[in-house]
Specification:
With 216 residues, the protein is α+β, with helices and mostly antiparallel strands. Helix content is 38%, strand content 22%. The protein has 8 helices and 8 strands, in the order ββαββαββαααββααα. Strands 2-1-5-6-8-7 form a 6-stranded mixed beta sheet, covered by helices on one side. A hairpin with a 6-residue loop joins β1 and β2. The radius of gyration is 18 Å and the shape is globular.
Length: 216
């Protein structure tokens, strides 16, 4: 463990005034931070569908895109700024914001198009490369974009002198459910839950939860 800033993860409900979960990864190793972020993603953006004897994992946001964005934030963040990487989880998207702008020598176009990588933190970058967390330096953004091919909603990138933010939207739902129905479906996860439990965990009102139950 260490005293360096880590990752601050917040899962919001229907609005930013409803906080369903918060995980602060400060004081943990970089690999622990990465794993905790991935666990939080899987809790809220993956669900299993059972058809006959087959169990299939479905993703509301591509896991590979989330992993790339978190790895990108850890590899390129500025460590002399006492601020954590922020992962804000919403119903229809995830925002990943890392402290510090682009490294000197990389333009916004270079960053978005890939192919050129100046590592701000080469030790972290090489560790992630050896562990196959990242495949090739400078290709993370390109891979994220490829994972959204054919989707109406695309990743968004906001780059300033003090931070880089990646927004990953939810993808088209194959089950034909609305975003709110997906939230309830994901919370159920094949288990029995009362409407009051769903209200507590989703942040939705009771009448809304009952209406979603009826539609499902």
């Amino acid at each position: 463990s260490n005293n360096a800033p880590g990752i601050d993860i917040v899962k919001f409900g229907k609005s930013i005034s409803i906080i369903l979960d918060r995980i602060n990864c400060s004081g943990k190793s970089i690999l622990e931070q990465y794993d905790l972020a991935t666990d939080a993603y899987r809790k809220y953006y993956q669900y299993e569908v059972i058809t006959g004897a087959i169990r299939v994992t479905k993703e509301l946001i591509p896991e590979a895109a989330f992993r790339e964005a978190v790895a990108n934030a850890l590899v390129h963040r500025v460590w002399d700024i006492n601020a954590s990487i922020s992962i804000a989880m919403f119903e229809d998207h995830i925002e990943i914001t890392s402290p510090g702008g682009l490294p000197v020598g990389i333009s916004k176009e270079n960053y978005l198009n890939g192919g050129i990588s100046i590592l701000r933190n080469p030790i972290i970058g090489n560790l992630f490369y050896r562990l196959r967390i990242i495949e090739h330096f400078g290709t993370g953004i390109r891979r994220i974009n490829e994972l959204y091919l054919g989707q109406n909603r695309k990743p968004q990138y906001t780059i300033s002198d003090s931070s880089i933010k990646i927004v990953l939207p939810t993808i088209t739902n194959e089950k034909g459910l609305t975003e709110d129905e997906n939230i309830v479906f994901k919370l159920l996860g094949g288990r029995l839950m009362s409407s009051s439990e769903i209200v507590s965990e989703s942040g939705f009102g009771k009448s809304k939860v009952l209406a979603i139950f009826k539609r499902l």
